[in-house]
């Protein structure tokens, strides 16, 4: 049982040592504008502004923490 636990732990920890799956020349494809989540950034900024106005607070989008003051 102990051997099995050590083998499982070694297997899980070896996953952290895997080299990146992407080659440096393949990473340029990820910077393509097609990969952006937002199709129209100006419209998204407007929607964010409307959301902030309705929520009566600034930073309603992407802020960390809650209303208790903790972050």
TrEMBL record:
- Keywords in UniProt for this one? Lipoprotein
Q: Which domain of life is it from?
A: Bacteria
Instruction: Give every DUF4266 domain span.
Output: 23-70
Q: Which Pfam families match?
A: DUF4266 (PF14086)
Protein known as: Lipoprotein
């Amino acid at each position: 049982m102990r051997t099995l636990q050590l083998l499982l732990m070694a297997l899980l920890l070896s996953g952290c040592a895997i080299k990146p799956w992407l080659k440096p020349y393949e990473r340029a494809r990820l910077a393509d504008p097609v990969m952006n989540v937002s199709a129209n950034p100006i419209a998204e900024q407007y929607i964010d502004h409307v959301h902030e106005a309705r929520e009566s607070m600034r930073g309603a989008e992407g802020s960390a923490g809650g209303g208790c003051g903790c972050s």
